[in-house]
Amino acid sequence: MITGEQALSEILNRLPPSRIETAELSAALGRVCAEDVFSDIDLPPFDKSAMDGYAVRSEDLKRAPVELEVIGMIAAGQQANYELKPGKAIKIMTGAVVPSGADAVIMKENTEPLTNNIIKCLKGVRTGENISYKAEDLKDGQQVINAGTRITASAIGLLAAVGKHQISVYQNPRVAVLTTGAELVDITAKPQPAQIRNSNTYSLMAQFAEMGINAHSLGVVKDEPAKLAAKVNEGLQYDFLVLTGGVSVGDYDIVEDTLKKAGVEIIFNKVAIKPGKPFTFGINKHCLIFGLPGNPLATFVITEVFIRAALVGFTNCPAAKRPIIKAGISESINKPYERQQYLTGWLEQTETGLTVRPIAGHGSADLVSLKDANCFIIVPPNTTIPQGEMVECMLIK
Ligand code: AMP
Ligand code: MG
Asked: 381: cis peptide before it, omega within 30°?
């Protein structure tokens, strides 16, 4: 049996090469950027009024209240063909070019019209007030986003502003999910005695969706070698084939054998973690095969810990990692256990700092404790932990 760390490096050592493609910006949300992007303009591109009001010389307003003659108007989108002389003002709209000679904009609300072309400025203005200066946000040629960044909604506007209408992104792995188990029934059915609803297909598809991957479900097969072999052959065409169920030592746990017959090289079939010991991993050409135990919590943990890490490597996206942070544990863990454990936990900020509370569960099938958790508490093997000690927690929400 190998450790979780060894299992992880066995997987990462076998990642297929990343692939790059071009995405339209409108379809790039959630994708991982494969290029450093630089601005092709200054932002703002010109000295810009931040208010509706009047472009003025702050010097003129030192004696406010003061009257100024309005010599023209500049709307957003118009060129500013004016030179502002002392004692004058130019009406200006938000987003319009500030004319030369002006060094501030007084808000319309701080003025009063006296005649058609005379205003009274009720207050003074600071030099630069209400002006967004050319290039104050970003300079022409400056870097906007690094390769390896996941493209979020908060970055899309900036990429649009610098004209990045197409962007180089890492391809996501093509992922197939294959569910096995003779006892499984569809979620539309009420399970008969000895049956259980297939929840893993749904949770796996959702986990991949959270990773930005639209996985393909190959459906459910009973524990029948011929049918399983046919589906496995289909799944080997993908980058990652993820199976659940049938990887343990029971008489009907036929996944490993079927994989071998399909030409898969099994790299490991037991990992010293809890839940998830019978985790099986193999490779066939460029396809990585993850055989997960059927217990839903084990399936979930392995997907977060190992398959997510493979995705991070495949798409070169460190941001896709689940953060691991330290928190003080609210109660002691008294029983040492020989394997590394992932316990469901609730992590929150309290008066004494970050605190994590283990959620009582009933083992590796307990979906209820998982639903209530926002992290996994990582307990090293053969270790007890006194109350208050700092433990590593992997955030899952
Ligand atoms: P196995 O890994 O096939 O030995 O299954 C371990 C446990 O997980 C058994 O209790 C199965 O009934 C359960 N199980 C297997 N596959 C699923 C699934 N797709 N959804 C929910 N439970 C499952
Ligand atoms: Mg089974």
From this structure: no
Mutation choice for ligand 1 from 180, 187, 200, CB with most ligand atoms inside 8 A = 200
CB atoms within 10 A of CB 201: 21
Q: Where are the domains of the chain?
A: 4-16+173-320, 20-43+137-170, 48-132, 325-395
Q: List residues, by chain if needed, whose CB lies under 5 Å from ion ligand 2.
A: 181, 245-246
Average pLDDT value for residue range 53-64: 97
Are 232 and 262 within 8 A, CB to CB?
A: yes
Query: In sequence order, what DSSP letters do the residues of 52-97 get, joined into one string?
Result: SEEEE-GGGGGG-SEEEEEEEEE-TTS----BPPTTEEEEE-TTPB
pLDDT of 320: 87
**Whole-number Å distance between alpha carbons of 298 and 287:** 22
User: Stretch 82-95: mean pLDDT, rounded?
Assistant: 97
Question: Bridge-partner residues for 240, per DSSP?
Answer: 175, 288
Output Rg (C-alpha) for the chain, integer angstroms. Answer: 31
Q: Give the tens place of pLDDT for each residue, 324-382.
A: 999 999 999 999 999 999 999 999 999 999 999 999 988 878 899 999 999 999 999 99
- Cβ atoms of 52 and 92 closer than 8 Å: yes
What is the residue type of 206? A
Q: Is 364 in the pocket of ligand 1 (CB under 6 A)?
A: no
Q: Indicate the pairing of strand 88-92 with strand 48-49.
A: unpaired
**CA 6–ligand 2 middle distance (angstroms):** 26
> For 125, which DSSP code?
-
| Global pTM value | 0.88
Tell me the three state secondary structure of residue 9. Answer: helix
Fold of 48-132: Molybdopterin biosynthesis moeA protein; domain 3 (2.170.190)
Residue 61 neighbours by CB distance under 10 Å: 23
Atom of ligand 1 nearest to the CA of 365: 8
Average pLDDT of the chain to the nearest whole number: 96
Cα 273 to Cα 19: distance, rounded to the nearest angstrom: 32
Instruction: Please identify, in words, the CATH class of the domain defined by 20-43+137-170.
Output: alpha beta
- pLDDT above 90: percentage of residues in the chain: 95
Q: How confident is the model at residue 24 (pLDDT cuts 50, 70, 90)?
A: very high
CA of 246, closest atom in ligand 1: 3
